[in-house]
Amino acid sequence: MAKQNTVFKDAYNRCLKVLAETSSLPSEPELGQALGVSRTTVRAILGRFEEAKLITWDKRKKIVLRQPQPDDYFPTEETDSLAEIIERSFMRRILAGGAEPGMQINELELAREIGTGTTSVREFLIRFSRFGLIEKRPNSHWILKGFTREFALELTEVREMFELRSAASFVALPDSHSAWQELSRIEAMHHEILADIDNRYKEFSELDERFHLLVHKSSSNRFIVDFYDIISIVFHYHYQWNKTNARQRNARALEEHLAYIEALRSHDAKRAEEACRRHLHSARETLLQSIP
Amino acid sequence: MAKQNTVFKDAYNRCLKVLAETSSLPSEPELGQALGVSRTTVRAILGRFEEAKLITWDKRKKIVLRQPQPDDYFPTEETDSLAEIIERSFMRRILAGGAEPGMQINELELAREIGTGTTSVREFLIRFSRFGLIEKRPNSHWILKGFTREFALELTEVREMFELRSAASFVALPDSHSAWQELSRIEAMHHEILADIDNRYKEFSELDERFHLLVHKSSSNRFIVDFYDIISIVFHYHYQWNKTNARQRNARALEEHLAYIEALRSHDAKRAEEACRRHLHSARETLLQSIP
DNA sequence: AATCTGTCTATTGTGGATAAAAGACAAATA
DNA sequence: TATTTGTCTTTTATCCACAATAGACAGATT
Fold first, then answer.
1. CATH number, position A169
2. Are residues A139 and A194 located together in one domain of the fold?
3. From the CA of B127, how many Å to the nearest CA of chain A?
4. Measured from the CB, is B80 under 7 Å from any atom of strand D?
5. What is the C-alpha to C-alpha distance for residues B35 and B38, in angstroms, rounded to an integer?
6. pLDDT score recorded for residue A240
7. Dihedral sign from CA coordinates of A261, A262, A268, A272
8. Which residues pair with A105 in a beta bridge?
9. Residue B162 host element (H or E)
């Protein structure tokens, strides 16, 4: 196997949804645009649609013959890119316990366990190393530095520096900047979720990322924005494997966000700084509590 | 070719120097320790020494037969690791002109140009991407973001945040901390170079890195320390290809360092902050001046 | 008893091959 | 004229193979 055709499979599934809502499909370039893939892939999808008797395809005429059934879709396991699979598998190992700091990481073993070639694992580890959780010994193994208390403290220290700086930029943004609209949308989502917190508290994680990324982006500094990747991945997996008091924790964070958002809106740097500091402080506590 | 034997060649050259100063070589593990390589490599070196009639080797007896001649050494081009070669080649392309922002980077083309496989180039690009100068479009090319004025400003903004924070940690270090001794050594080097600035100004670059890295390390924060890699590589290549007024610039920076060092020694956070700020400000100006 | 050497195995670094995906260009169509 | 399609070429993502290097262990040596 050379390349996984996950791009094809994922686009195929998404294209089935487009198909379900129309009687004839648009042009190839248009479909490519909509699905975010090249025409080559679009044509492969159309070819397969034809084989599956989902459409007839003659040049510009792509007529829908029938509605897609559940088993027309590729199973979701097959649509994840290899990088995603490796990441998940690896994060489970190191965050969900059983991995002591100082442990050696073996490319070959990891590859075998995941059922993939070493090159992909290797590339993943190189990419992942910027998160500061592993370290390479050239010509030898990788070392797991572990998701420790020190790691969390170092991470949050930088996070606080960056977010305070970003919040200061945010309040200085002109009213015409699109960030204010996005901020309003995010604020509205907060109210929606809070109104039905018992059922929707799980949506917090995604909203949290969206909000903080918006703030970081206003720094207009690629290093600050890129650093948010680290925060993002840590909190993402952290939320996923640490569900104690999730409802209560999330409710509190939502309230803090609302205060923070209001402070940003005031254009008052001092107020924004205080609200930011307060929220980041409690976010840090939450993170630390989950580390033994 | 599977793996370059640069580790062997480099260790071989260094081992020749050990050999030049003794009449019989120490044990294999001891040599491995001294050279920073495994016993396997040490044994390969000893075997080659024997072939070259540099020593006789019988178990623990490794008797030196003759002094190494210049042509016993491997040429230096052969001792650089592939990663170093790729890095240099790539940095020359993007810093030494001819590379417009927005340009596409082609793995295959780069590999051919450097005379290496695509895997190595690819891994280099992944590692390098954390420096914020290039960006990946999955399933497609890389994009050169370029060594622009924005890049320099974003870089120095974060640098200033981090170094100010580190300097504040530094003044709080207990007198017993080894950093104070290293600081004294660095200070002494400054005086030495300044005393003979016309001949030795080129040594500044290395000393500069050593000094700032020491400061960053006192933050005890892996993200701050790791970030110094970016500063380091940028200034390293920048110094190399931009020699206008080098003597004068370096002399000024050395003076600023000395003031900065004295301020750190005073344990006065306020003074240290001022000295740090002053130096970083002029470092930024220097960097910006060299960008069109 | 501690260290060293001989031997063997396991893992990393790197080039090469190949399917998937992107993309270029000219002819066809509306 | 502006898109769209058919066809072809180029490039990336991935696996595999193999030499270089690291590392483990038992027996030899001091």
1. 1.20.120.530
2. no
3. 6
4. no
5. 9
6. 82
7. negative
8. A142
9. helix B149-171
Q: DSSP alpha helices (H): ranges in chain A?
A: 6-20, 28-35, 39-51, 82-95, 107-114, 118-128, 149-171, 178-195, 197-200, 204-217, 222-241, 246-265, 269-289
Same domain, A157 and A265: yes
- For chain B, positions 115-134, list CB contacts with chain A under 8 A: 119, 122-123, 126-127, 130, 132
Residue B203: CB less than 7 A from any atom in strand D? no
* pLDDT score for A1: 74
Residue A253 within any structural domain of the chain: yes
Enclosing domain of residue B203:
149-289
Chain A closest-CA separation from residue B80 CA (Å): 14
Say which DSSP state A141 is in.
Answer: -
Q: Looking at the domain assignment, is residue A37 inside a domain?
A: yes
Whether the CB-CB separation of B88 and B50 falls below 8 Å is answered with no
Q: Are residues A191 and A236 in the same domain?
A: yes
3-state secondary structure (DSSP) of residue A27? coil
Quote the pLDDT of residue A97: 67
- Is A261 domain-assigned? yes
Query: In degrees rounded to 5, what are phi and psi of residue A267?
Result: 60, 15
Asked if residues A130 and B130 have their Cβ atoms less than 8 Å apart, the reply is yes
What value does the mean pLDDT take over residues B37-41? 98
pLDDT over threshold 90, residue B96: no
Using CB atoms, pick whichever of A127, A155, A222 lies closest to residue B154: A222
Q: Give the model confidence (pLDDT) of B131-175 as tens digits.
A: 999 999 999 999 999 899 999 999 999 999 999 999 999 999 999
Averaged pLDDT, B35-53: 98
Same domain, B179 and B281: yes
pLDDT digits (tens, 9 = 90+) for B199-228: 999 999 999 999 999 999 999 999 999 999
Size of chain B, expressed as the number of residues it contains: 292
Nearest-nucleotide field for A41 (CA, C1'): C21
Residue at minimal CA–C1' distance from C6?
A: B59
Residue B61 is part of a domain; what is its CATH number? 1.10.10.10
Number of structural domains found in chain B: 3
If asked whether residues B140 and B26 sit together in one domain, one would say: no
Residues B39 and B96 in one domain: no
Asked if B188 has any chain A CB less than 8 Å from its own CB, the reply is: no
The model's confidence at residue B75, banded by pLDDT at 50, 70 and 90, is: very high
Taking 70 as the pLDDT cut, the residues of chain A under it are: 97-98
Minimum CA–CA partner of B8 in chain A: A139
Domain end call among B44, B60, B77: B77
Q: What is the pLDDT of residue A166?
A: 98
How far the first Cα of chain B sits from its last, in Å, is 42
List B119's β-bridge partners, or say none.
none
Same domain, A162 and A262: yes
Q: Is the pTM of this model over 0.85?
A: yes
Give A81→chain B minimum CA distance, Å.
11
A91 within some domain: yes
For the sheet with B142-144, list strands across it: B104-105, B142-144, B134-136
Based on the fold, state whether residues A279 and A224 are members of the same structural domain.
Answer: yes
* Token pair in block for residue B14: 């260094």
Q: Which of B22, B55, B77 is the last residue of a domain?
A: B77
